[in-house]
Automatic annotation (TrEMBL):
This is NADH-quinone oxidoreductase subunit L. Residues 79-128 form the NADH-Ubiquinone oxidoreductase (complex I) chain 5 N-terminal domain. InterPro entries: NADHpl_OxRdtase_5_subgr (IPR018393), ND/Mrp_TM (IPR001750), NU5C-like (IPR003945), Proton_antipo_N (IPR001516). Keywords: Membrane, Transmembrane, Transmembrane helix. GO terms for molecular function: NADH dehydrogenase (ubiquinone) activity; NADH dehydrogenase activity. It is a multi-pass membrane protein. Residues 146-428 form the NADH:quinone oxidoreductase/Mrp antiporter transmembrane domain. It is found in: Endomembrane system; Membrane. The keyword Flavoprotein does not apply. One of its GO terms (biological process) is electron transport coupled proton transport. The chain crosses the membrane at residues 12-32, 44-66, 95-115, 127-145, 190-212, 218-236, 257-275, 287-308, 315-339, 384-404, 424-446, 467-490, 510-532, 609-632. Pfam families: Proton_antipo_M (PF00361), Proton_antipo_N (PF00662).
Amino acid sequence: MHDISYAPATGALAWTWALIALPALGAAVLLLAGRRADKWGHWLGTATIGAAFALALALFASLAGLDDKSAHLDLFTIISVGDLQIDASLLFDPLSAVFCLLITGVGFLIHVYAIGYMAHDAGRRKFFAYFNLFAAAMLVLVLGGNYFMTFIGWEGVGLASYLLIAFWQLKPSAATAGKKAFLTNRVADVGFLLAMFVMIGALGSVDFATVFNGAESLSTGTSLALGLLLLAAACGKSGQFPFQTWLPDAMEGPTPVSALIHAATMVTAGVYLIARSNVIFSLNADVQTVVVVVGALTLLFGAIVGCAKDDIKRVLAWSTVSQIGYMFLAVGLGGGAFALGIIHLLAHGFFKAGLFLGSGSVMHAMNDQTDIRRFGGLWRVMPWTYATFAAGWLAIIGLFPFSGYFTKDPIIASAFAREGWQGWVVGGAALLGAALTAFYMTRLFVLTFHGPRRWTEDVHPHESPAIMTGPLVLLGLGSLAAGGLMASPVTTWLTPVFGEHHEAHGHLTHMQVTIATTAVVVLGAALGWFLFRGGTEEVPRAASWPVRFARADLGGEVVNRGVFERPSRLVAGATVSMDGRVVDGAVNGLSAAIGGTSRRLLQLQTGFVRSYALSILSGAVIVVAALMVVVVQ
């Protein structure tokens, strides 16, 4: 492996810091201005992220013109202790560049959509402040020039997600969901902290170049521990097994929040961390195997649960869990598959943002109802939403020539290329996931837009205003074309980060994988259409235990309660009891003993001279008697 180094930022690239400063400034102004900004705050918040997107495009163009595709910018020193120095530094390279474009580009469209979606919300100004804060934190995460800076953005995203998921905090479910997301991520983030401690202990630095260049000198055990700790952090942020349960509950926040979290920011952070740390993960085959297993398990987990849900946003949430699983699978396979994971991430950003915003448009038309069993026939009254949602549906199931075909099929082919029986198992899991995706997304699409109308009498569905449908159209176009336009150029663009990409060859040829994938996708979609084209029962009859198990999130919540929540409650209860009975008992007992003794001694103080004289006489008699006894002896 050649030494990794980053060129100093010069010219326009010296303005990389402004990518973060623009949305951060918008958040600060909106929070400090208070109610005075209520009338124009949403426009400022949207303008700052739009300006950041324009700057990202300019910086991208500048980077493309350089031979050395990197620009490293040192701002100031954060920590300087002995030989350890940690700087506030930024890195703009091919990997961070594509993430910046995704965050600001898709984020800008979501901001525009939110202007209409949050139009009647009294807290809209504060909402846009948190939205800007979220984007700024994510930009710090992907632009950080070392692991410490990435961690600052990492925790900033966690804070912003809590504020946005629990934005309607007066609703108990929203407040609970915000706390659940925050606490789950804090548990996983311990892995990131410990990973940095390992880096400092073994290599004396958290700078990317120093860590990557010194990674080969690490022992097998140290590289294994480092990879697993980073993986734990990534699983928490991206909602991968065993931390997947927080992500569907995040749907309690406003729909634009769901779109931003699932498409452009938070859940992509884990994929970014593994991709950025590709040198570390590539050095240890055991770590790569664990990443592959987590990805394969999670993509099936999310797809199975998605088949059983009736809430339009929760189906999409479990879909995100599954699609991020594909990305983890890709980056776990290593080699050229790192780029495949990033390409699927970019395409997913378009079609998942469009699907979530489309679900928000449906909710806007249906008085905030989310049960797809109460929809049906909406294609007639919501043509723009229908068309753009259809684009996202075709993209995510991966039919040719839509974007998912160009990004998911190569991942499945790379999975089958894994050596030995693992290739068959992992490739089979990825192929089964594609079939399940086609089934549950077709079920969602058909029950929402087709079949008989199942609306309640108080609902009068209508198309959303232009400020909401405009972003839907742009995202729909991206859903259709993004994969085909990006696949080869992005792979080449990412070569300085991941190395040359070579097409995988394994148990099945690329053509065989394409035929198999297309076949299972068509079969899954046809089954979903056939079963649900006439609607579904509002209250289904007693389902078989597998369906009930899937509706119960495959027991994920039960496991969390049994393994984590209940033991924690018992420990907390025992601690409180010990504090009350043992610690407080000892303190209160000592206090009572001293108080009781003092009250008894107080009785000796009568205030009568004759009593004191009698006491003195009695003492004198006792002393004289004692002396006489001593003399006689």
